[in-house]
Amino acid sequence: SHNLSSCRFYLHPELTKDLVGTHPPGAYSLVAVSVGYFLEDSLDMLCNQKLHQSWELLCHHSVVIVCFGIAVLLHQYVGFALVALLVEINSIFLHVRQILLMANLVHTACYRLNSVINLGTYVVFRIATLAWMTRWLFLNRQNVPPASYAVGTVGMALMTPMNIILFYRLVRSDFFK
Protein backbone atom coordinates (compact mmCIF):
# COMPACT_ATOMS: atom_id res chain seq x y z
CA SER A 1 0.00 0.00 0.00
CA HIS A 2 2.92 2.37 0.61
CA ASN A 3 3.85 2.47 -3.09
CA LEU A 4 0.45 4.00 -3.78
CA SER A 5 1.69 7.16 -2.09
CA SER A 6 3.67 8.34 -5.12
CA CYS A 7 0.67 7.55 -7.38
CA ARG A 8 -1.50 9.82 -5.23
CA PHE A 9 0.78 12.80 -5.94
CA TYR A 10 0.76 12.06 -9.65
CA LEU A 11 -3.03 11.67 -9.82
CA HIS A 12 -3.76 14.57 -7.42
CA PRO A 13 -1.14 17.30 -8.01
CA GLU A 14 -3.08 19.64 -5.69
CA LEU A 15 -1.52 17.68 -2.82
CA THR A 16 1.82 19.28 -3.62
CA LYS A 17 0.36 22.73 -2.90
CA ASP A 18 -1.60 21.90 0.27
CA LEU A 19 -0.19 19.18 2.52
CA VAL A 20 -2.46 20.21 5.40
CA GLY A 21 -6.06 20.34 4.19
CA THR A 22 -6.15 18.45 0.88
CA HIS A 23 -6.97 14.77 1.07
CA PRO A 24 -8.66 12.83 -1.71
CA PRO A 25 -10.60 9.88 -0.28
CA GLY A 26 -8.04 7.35 -1.44
CA ALA A 27 -5.20 9.26 0.18
CA TYR A 28 -7.01 9.47 3.50
CA SER A 29 -7.76 5.73 3.32
CA LEU A 30 -4.11 4.95 2.56
CA VAL A 31 -2.96 6.83 5.66
CA ALA A 32 -5.67 5.22 7.80
CA VAL A 33 -4.75 1.72 6.58
CA SER A 34 -1.09 2.52 7.23
CA VAL A 35 -1.92 3.33 10.87
CA GLY A 36 -3.50 -0.11 11.11
CA TYR A 37 -0.46 -1.74 9.52
CA PHE A 38 1.96 -0.03 11.91
CA LEU A 39 -0.25 -0.96 14.89
CA GLU A 40 -0.41 -4.60 13.80
CA ASP A 41 3.33 -4.77 13.08
CA SER A 42 4.09 -3.25 16.50
CA LEU A 43 1.85 -5.76 18.23
CA ASP A 44 3.51 -8.58 16.29
CA MET A 45 6.97 -7.38 17.36
CA LEU A 46 5.90 -7.05 20.99
CA CYS A 47 4.50 -10.59 20.99
CA ASN A 48 7.18 -12.35 18.93
CA GLN A 49 10.50 -10.55 19.45
CA LYS A 50 12.65 -9.58 22.36
CA LEU A 51 12.57 -5.85 23.13
CA HIS A 52 16.33 -5.44 22.59
CA GLN A 53 15.86 -6.76 19.03
CA SER A 54 13.02 -4.47 18.05
CA TRP A 55 13.14 -1.31 20.18
CA GLU A 56 14.33 0.93 17.30
CA LEU A 57 11.59 -0.27 14.98
CA LEU A 58 9.02 0.03 17.78
CA CYS A 59 10.17 3.63 18.32
CA HIS A 60 9.80 4.27 14.56
CA HIS A 61 6.35 2.71 14.51
CA SER A 62 5.25 4.68 17.60
CA VAL A 63 6.21 7.99 15.99
CA VAL A 64 4.40 7.03 12.77
CA ILE A 65 1.29 5.85 14.64
CA VAL A 66 1.06 9.12 16.60
CA CYS A 67 1.71 11.37 13.58
CA PHE A 68 -0.50 9.46 11.16
CA GLY A 69 -3.13 9.00 13.87
CA ILE A 70 -3.33 12.79 14.24
CA ALA A 71 -3.74 13.13 10.47
CA VAL A 72 -6.53 10.54 10.45
CA LEU A 73 -8.35 11.95 13.50
CA LEU A 74 -8.10 15.60 12.42
CA HIS A 75 -8.52 14.99 8.67
CA GLN A 76 -5.50 17.26 8.27
CA TYR A 77 -1.84 16.72 7.35
CA VAL A 78 -2.85 13.77 5.15
CA GLY A 79 -0.65 15.13 2.34
CA PHE A 80 2.25 15.42 4.76
CA ALA A 81 1.63 11.82 5.86
CA LEU A 82 1.68 10.77 2.19
CA VAL A 83 5.10 12.37 1.82
CA ALA A 84 6.17 10.37 4.87
CA LEU A 85 4.90 7.18 3.23
CA LEU A 86 7.36 7.73 0.38
CA VAL A 87 9.98 6.69 2.94
CA GLU A 88 8.42 3.23 3.02
CA ILE A 89 9.27 2.57 -0.65
CA ASN A 90 12.76 1.78 0.57
CA SER A 91 11.29 -0.78 3.01
CA ILE A 92 10.78 -3.14 0.07
CA PHE A 93 14.54 -3.42 -0.38
CA LEU A 94 15.24 -3.50 3.35
CA HIS A 95 12.86 -6.48 3.62
CA VAL A 96 14.37 -8.22 0.57
CA ARG A 97 17.78 -7.73 2.20
CA GLN A 98 16.52 -9.34 5.39
CA ILE A 99 15.05 -12.29 3.48
CA LEU A 100 18.33 -12.79 1.58
CA LEU A 101 20.24 -12.68 4.87
CA MET A 102 17.92 -15.26 6.44
CA ALA A 103 18.31 -17.47 3.34
CA ASN A 104 22.11 -17.20 3.67
CA LEU A 105 22.39 -15.62 0.21
CA VAL A 106 24.76 -12.83 1.22
CA HIS A 107 27.46 -13.79 -1.28
CA THR A 108 25.20 -13.69 -4.34
CA ALA A 109 24.74 -11.25 -7.21
CA CYS A 110 21.12 -10.84 -6.12
CA TYR A 111 22.20 -9.66 -2.66
CA ARG A 112 24.78 -7.29 -4.13
CA LEU A 113 22.25 -5.82 -6.59
CA ASN A 114 19.69 -5.42 -3.81
CA SER A 115 22.34 -3.72 -1.64
CA VAL A 116 23.00 -1.10 -4.31
CA ILE A 117 19.28 -0.52 -4.97
CA ASN A 118 18.64 -0.47 -1.22
CA LEU A 119 21.19 2.28 -0.61
CA GLY A 120 20.00 4.27 -3.63
CA THR A 121 16.37 4.14 -2.55
CA TYR A 122 17.47 4.81 1.02
CA VAL A 123 19.09 8.09 0.03
CA VAL A 124 16.20 9.15 -2.24
CA PHE A 125 13.18 7.92 -0.29
CA ARG A 126 14.39 8.08 3.31
CA ILE A 127 17.11 10.66 3.78
CA ALA A 128 15.98 13.14 1.10
CA THR A 129 12.30 12.77 2.03
CA LEU A 130 12.98 13.30 5.74
CA ALA A 131 15.15 16.32 4.91
CA TRP A 132 12.37 17.75 2.72
CA MET A 133 9.77 17.12 5.44
CA THR A 134 11.95 18.82 8.06
CA ARG A 135 12.44 21.80 5.72
CA TRP A 136 8.68 21.97 4.99
CA LEU A 137 7.86 21.88 8.69
CA PHE A 138 10.34 24.65 9.43
CA LEU A 139 9.17 26.85 6.54
CA ASN A 140 5.49 26.37 7.46
CA ARG A 141 5.84 26.67 11.25
CA GLN A 142 3.69 29.82 11.34
CA ASN A 143 0.83 27.95 9.59
CA VAL A 144 0.96 24.85 11.81
CA PRO A 145 -0.65 24.93 15.26
CA PRO A 146 1.90 24.66 18.11
CA ALA A 147 0.81 21.17 19.21
CA SER A 148 1.02 19.75 15.68
CA TYR A 149 4.31 21.54 15.11
CA ALA A 150 5.69 20.05 18.33
CA VAL A 151 4.62 16.53 17.34
CA GLY A 152 6.11 16.97 13.86
CA THR A 153 9.35 18.41 15.21
CA VAL A 154 9.77 15.62 17.77
CA GLY A 155 8.93 13.06 15.08
CA MET A 156 11.58 14.45 12.73
CA ALA A 157 14.08 14.76 15.60
CA LEU A 158 13.63 11.03 16.34
CA MET A 159 13.36 9.70 12.79
CA THR A 160 16.25 11.55 11.18
CA PRO A 161 19.05 10.29 13.48
CA MET A 162 17.55 6.79 13.50
CA ASN A 163 17.63 6.70 9.70
CA ILE A 164 21.15 8.12 9.48
CA ILE A 165 22.39 5.48 11.95
CA LEU A 166 20.65 2.71 10.00
CA PHE A 167 22.19 4.04 6.76
CA TYR A 168 25.64 3.93 8.36
CA ARG A 169 25.03 0.35 9.52
CA LEU A 170 23.87 -0.71 6.06
CA VAL A 171 26.87 0.86 4.33
CA ARG A 172 29.27 -0.66 6.86
CA SER A 173 27.64 -4.10 6.70
CA ASP A 174 27.11 -4.39 2.94
CA PHE A 175 30.10 -2.51 1.56
CA PHE A 176 32.88 -2.40 4.20
CA LYS A 177 32.91 -5.82 5.82
TrEMBL record:
<dbReference type="GO" id="GO:0007009">
    <property type="term" value="P:plasma membrane organization"/>
</dbReference>
<dbReference type="GO" id="GO:0097035">
    <property type="term" value="P:regulation of membrane lipid distribution"/>
</dbReference>
<keyword id="KW-0812">Transmembrane</keyword>
<dbReference type="Pfam" id="PF03798">
    <property type="entry name" value="TRAM_LAG1_CLN8"/>
</dbReference>
<keyword id="KW-0472">Membrane</keyword>
<feature type="domain" description="TLC">
    <location>
        <begin position="1"/>
        <end position="177"/>
    </location>
</feature>
<dbReference type="InterPro" id="IPR006634">
    <property type="entry name" value="TLC-dom"/>
</dbReference>
<feature type="transmembrane region" description="Helical">
    <location>
        <begin position="116"/>
        <end position="138"/>
    </location>
</feature>
<dbReference type="GO" id="GO:0071709">
    <property type="term" value="P:membrane assembly"/>
</dbReference>
<feature type="transmembrane region" description="Helical">
    <location>
        <begin position="80"/>
        <end position="96"/>
    </location>
</feature>
<keyword id="KW-1133">Transmembrane helix</keyword>
<dbReference type="GO" id="GO:0055091">
    <property type="term" value="P:phospholipid homeostasis"/>
</dbReference>
<dbReference type="InterPro" id="IPR050846">
    <property type="entry name" value="TLCD"/>
</dbReference>
<dbReference type="GO" id="GO:0005886">
    <property type="term" value="C:plasma membrane"/>
</dbReference>
<protein>
    <submittedName>
        <fullName>TLCD2 protein</fullName>
    </submittedName>
</protein>
<feature type="transmembrane region" description="Helical">
    <location>
        <begin position="150"/>
        <end position="171"/>
    </location>
</feature>
